[in-house]
Amino acid sequence: MMMSISNGNLRVDLKLIADMVASGSRVLDVGCGDGSLLAWLGKNKGVDGRGIELSMAGVTAAVAHGLSVIQGDADTDLKDYPTGAFDYVILSQTLQATYAPKTVLNNMLRIGRKAIVSFPNFGHWRVRWDLLTKGRMPVTDTLAYDWYETPNIHFCTILDFQTLCADLGVRVDRAVALDRDGQVLDGLGSRLATNFFADQGLFLLSRGD
């Protein structure tokens, strides 16, 4: 869960996302929660930020702090935004909960010049180990639900996501692998190693054409 908007600090993964955003840019945060990232970007980078959040509680919290956030759904509402309306469209830890990830990603890169996407990696060794030894769907820090009540409906690995980007002609401008504490994993040396050891993947994307 996103930390309180009153805290001036951000989770490590959100700070990495913030570092990818240029000062003074136009930003749409899809699934923005209580608006913590938008608030930080507004205060520290002077962005013109907007947010979409499915939870009414999240919308209420964000609006109460003066943020421009509306209730909406990535699957159904992104198509209504005009092409090129934003410099960055952010989707943090939400892609796996969408019904049509391919369509959502296409819309993000139509709406924005760049997209920033993070998601839990279903190829992590701990996930594989649980499936192998227990024969049950794993529950981890980033996949923190039992199978019968999870909002996550499209699990993917980092390699799956990279393949999707290639199929869509999407350019990966930057890729970051994170461990279970949100810290950057360095020196893994290969895509297979990253896919095996990373708990989360974080990507900065743009159109390849």
Question: How do you describe this structure in short?
Answer:
The protein contains eight helices and seven strands; from the N terminus they run H-E-H-E-H-E-H-E-H-E-H-H-E-H-E.
The first-level CATH class name:
Alpha Beta
**Annotation, overall tally of beta strands:** 7
Rg over CA atoms: 17 Å
The tally of structural domains comes to 1
Query: Average pLDDT across residues?
Result: 86
Characterize the biggest β-sheet.
7 strands, mixed
What is the CA–CA distance across the termini?
A: 36 Å
3D structure, described in words:
- By secondary structure, this protein is α/β, with parallel strands linked by helices.
- Helices cover 33% and strands 22% of the residues.
- It is globular and about 50 Å long.
- The protein starts with 11 loop residues before the first helix and ends with a strand.
Question: What distinguishing features does this structure have?
Answer:
single chain, Rossmann fold, 209 residues, 8 helices, 33% helix, 7-stranded mixed sheet, alpha/beta, disordered N terminus
Which helices and strands, and how do they pair?
Blueprint: H1 12-20, E1 26-30, H2 36-45, E2 48-53, H3 56-64, E3 69-71, H4 74-77, E4 86-92, H5 101-111, E5 112-120, H6 125-134, H7 158-167, E6 170-178, H8 191-197, E7 200-207
Parallel strand pairs: 1-2, 1-4, 2-3, 4-5
Antiparallel strand pairs: 5-7, 6-7
